[in-house]
Automatic annotation (TrEMBL):
It comes from the Bacteria. It comes from Ereboglobus luteus. This is HTH araC/xylS-type domain-containing protein. InterPro entries: Homeodomain-like_sf, HTH_AraC, HTH_AraC-typ_CS, PocR_dom, Tscrpt_reg_AraC-type_HTH. Residues 306-404 form the HTH araC/xylS-type domain. Keywords: DNA-binding, Transcription, Transcription regulation. One of its GO terms (molecular function) is sequence-specific DNA binding. SUPFAM superfamilies: Homeodomain-like.
Length: 411
């Protein structure tokens, strides 16, 4: 499957270590040659921003690439998104670049930190080929890239597997991950995924104007990608309503009232036939959901703070930031810090550290995993730092605590 249709990106200079301590240029060139022999496709290495570090990418110049908007040619954005989607779902997601060609990527990771990735791009989609042939070849090539990275210890296979299982439990994507058409569905759906945190926070704060603006941006994005696929657009819009309803319940709306709204929305959606009607329907649902929440004063700060703590408990192993947690709780970063000091008597960093240490201590007492593995799974990328803060908090090292907790005699 050759992709020589006119280069739009070429070799860029890079140091001998493309990813220091993980992948040298010489090792990358061997990987690229092996992948080229197996699939006839060029392999590139990119950094976490989507910029090419090594290798070569070719891309066809289609009518999409000749669009009047120059921002449509922003390939690094597509490359970075391919990395993020693979990390999110645990499997390579076949996407389309601004030129209309297929691409996929696998993240290169040090522990839970994504340094960049291995990328295949500029693969033409051939609609006139034998039925099913394109689907199988693309899927085989994308999964072989993941397997190649795993064999060379270039990616965090445990984290990808964890995300893969979570994705299947939460959204039933087992079949979608093996079907190109559904992968294109994912590509359309991703148009609003990055808006989701801001929309949820606006709903939970009761900020109608901001939420309406976000919904309009989402609709513009998904219509640009899915024009003519009415059933798909309605499915995505209904998913948005479910997401908004969940945010409203978390912010204090009565579940029975929200359930009634959702039931009526299904009937009303059947009569929606245009983008204008769909926008009006979504905004009407937004207004009703915010009304169901009642006045913001009815929801004390303790509810939002509890939501923030619950979010930290669920995601403490990740590289969390104060702003991310505040956004998930529907708070401004400054107000979140104020509530933390006033009600929890701690800073965000202090609370996160305590939660990580408490989880590490529980695992040390019951798991046989190595201390380094437990440290990493609890959000500590540096074992020496983990040992230092653990000893400061509990007056003994992780190894000593494990022996004592299991009733062993410490020599």
């Amino acid at each position: 499957m050759e992709t020589q249709r006119g280069a739009c990106l070429n070799n860029l200079p890079s140091p001998s270590d493309i990813f220091p301590g993980i992948l040298t240029r010489e090792a990358f060139e061997k990987l690229a040659a092996r992948y080229k022999r197996a699939h006839g496709l060029n392999l590139a290495a990119i950094d976490s921003a989507g910029e090419v570090l090594a290798g070569r990418i070719h891309c066809a110049d289609t009518k999409t690439a000749r669009a009047a908007d120059p921002s449509a040619l922003s390939h690094p954005v597509s490359f970075r998104q391919a990395l993020e989607e693979t990390l999110r779902w645990g499997d390579p997601c076949i996407m389309c670049c601004p030129c209309g060609n297929a691409l996929w990527a696998v993240p290169v990771m040090r522990n839970q930190q994504m340094l960049g990735g291995l990328l295949v791009a500029g693969v033409p989609l051939e609609p006139d080929g034998p039925a099913g042939e394109l689907d199988r070849s693309l899927l085989s090539a994308s999964h072989d890239l993941l397997n190649l990275a795993a064999r060379e210890n270039l990616t965090n296979t445990a984290l990808l597997e964890q995300n893969r299982l979570a994705a299947r439990r939460e959204s039933g994507r087992a079949e979608a991950l093996h079907d190109l058409k559904e992968r294109l569905y994912d590509e359309i759906r991703s148009a609003y995924l990055h808006e989701e945190p801001a929309l949820l926070a606006a709903i939970q704060r009761g900020e109608r104007a901001e939420a309406r603006g976000i919904i309009n941006r989402i609709l513009t994005a998904i219509y640009a990608r899915g024009a003519g696929r009415r059933s798909l657009l309605k499915t995505l819009s209904l998913e948005l309503v479910v997401m908004m309803a969940r945010a409203a319940v978390q912010a204090g709306a009565e579940p029975e009232k929200v359930l009634g709204l959702n039931y009526r929305s299904l009937t009303e959606l059947a009569d929606v036939h245009s983008q204008e009607d769909l926008s009006r329907w979504l905004c009407d649902m937004l207004e009703q959901l915010i009304d169901a929440m009642g006045a913001p004063a009815a929801h004390p700060n303790a509810v939002q703070l509890a939501r923030a703590v619950a979010y930290i408990e669920q995601h403490y192993a990740n590289d969390l930031t104060r702003d991310e947690v505040a956004r998930a709780a529907g708070l401004s970063p400054g107000h979140f810090s104020h509530l933390m000091r006033e009600h929890a008597g701690a800073t965000f960093t202090g609370l996160l550290l305590r939660i990580r240490l408490d989880n590490a201590r529980r695992r040390l007492a019951r798991d046989n995993a190595a201390v380094a593995e437990i440290a990493q799974s609890c959000g500590f990328s540096d074992q020496s730092y983990f040992t230092r803060v653990f000893k400061k908090a509990f007056s003994e090292t992780p190894a000593a605590y494990r022996q004592r907790a299991r009733g062993a005699v410490i020599g």
